[in-house]
From TrEMBL:
Record's protein name: RNase H type-1 domain-containing protein
Organism: Gossypium stocksii
Lineage per the UniProt record: Eukaryota, Viridiplantae, Streptophyta, Embryophyta, Tracheophyta
InterPro entries assigned: RNase_H-like_dom_plant (IPR044730), RNase_H-like_EbsB-rel (IPR052929), RNaseH-like_sf (IPR012337), RNaseH_domain (IPR002156), RNaseH_sf (IPR036397)
Transmembrane regions listed in the UniProt entry: none
SUPFAM superfamilies documented for this protein: Ribonuclease H-like
Gene3D superfamilies given in the database record: Ribonuclease H-like superfamily/Ribonuclease H
Highest taxon above the source species: Eukaryota
Listed Pfam families: RVT_3
Any GO molecular function: RNA-DNA hybrid ribonuclease activity
Length: 285
């Protein structure tokens, strides 16, 4: 969408942020569906807003959120092409009814459920380092979370690293991967699997060739340092499979500190580690 004035309210630019979040009818729909946005989201761009929603809300709430975006887009098109105007309350009711209808159809169909992606043990004599990063845009602060585990899902060590004056969330994920490599080398590891839930970062590390993005220097350093291992595999995993590292970042960003633990994980992360053990997945071939 461009930056022309909104064709419906004539108040503000017709940006994605305005159309889907700030426009009064959109606001009314979100409120009726039980959504409210933190103050920092009011000044965030569309992509940051999406990231925050999928980070903070449950899977079911994210489902409602996605259908509401679609419904709001539909109301915009109908207004432009047919002159039809729907209130936020009507839009919210449509979303609720649509989801109820889908759920009703689903209950009549046989279901083949896919297993939830979980942390998998590393191969043989390898060790696995999971990394993640949390970022606070308004304060330009980040925390990197790292955990090293063996084939029995025992924590060799865990680490949270707090940083200030960080330019973007994209940079923090790459910094976390670089820290994971450095930690592995510091521990004298020879064969490592390095996992994170940033698909873009992992893809850039797996690809050959020059990278010209804002994280170029971190990608180059990561590739170079990884050559010091006997073997090093970079793997993308889901957020659920990366839960321990993710929880470390959340604890670290709240505490605002850098901490290292040997043969242990942080108190708020212990339950997630135990859950991984209960669902222990053997190494993939």
């Amino acid at each position: 969408m461009g930056s022309a004035s909104c064709r419906r309210c004539q108040n503000g630019a017709e940006s994605r942020e305005h159309v889907f979040r700030d426009y009064p009818i959109a606001n009314e729909a979100w409120t009726k569906l039980g959504f409210s946005w933190p103050s920092q989201d009011e000044n965030s761009d569309f992509n940051e807003w999406l990231n925050n929603v999928f980070e903070l809300y449950s899977l079911n709430q994210c489902r409602v959120f996605a259908y509401t975006l679609w419904a709001l887009w539909s109301t915009i098109n109908r207004f432009i092409h047919e002159g039809e105007v729907k209130s936020g309350s009507q839009t919210a009711d449509f979303v609720k009814n649509y989801i109820n209808e889908l759920d009703g159809l689903s209950s009549c169909l046989p279901v083949n459920r896919l297993p939830l992606s979980r942390w998998a043990t590393p191969t043989d004599s390898w060790l696995k380092i999971n990394f993640d990063a949390a970022f606070k845009k308004e304060r330009k602060e980040s925390c990197l979370g790292l955990v090293v585990r063996n084939t029995r899902d025992e924590a060799i060590c865990s680490k949270m690293v707090f940083h200030e004056n960080i330019p973007s969330a994209f940079a923090t994920e790459t910094m976390a991967c670089l820290q994971a490599i450095r930690l592995g080398l510091h521990l004298g590891l020879r064969k490592v699997e390095i996992e994170g839930d940033s698909r873009t970062v992992i893809r850039k590390l797996q690809e050959e060739g020059e990278d010209r993005s804002e994280i170029e220097v971190f990608i180059q350093d990561s590739r170079y340092l990884s050559l010091d291992f006997e073997s090093c595999d970079f793997k993308f995993v889901s957020r659920e499979a990366n839960k321990v590292a993710h929880l470390i970042t959340k604890e670290g960003i709240n505490k605002g500190e850098t901490t290292y633990l040997q043969n242990a994980v942080f108190t708020g992360v212990e339950e997630a580690l135990m859950e991984d053990r209960r669902w222990m997945v053997p190494p993939r071939g």
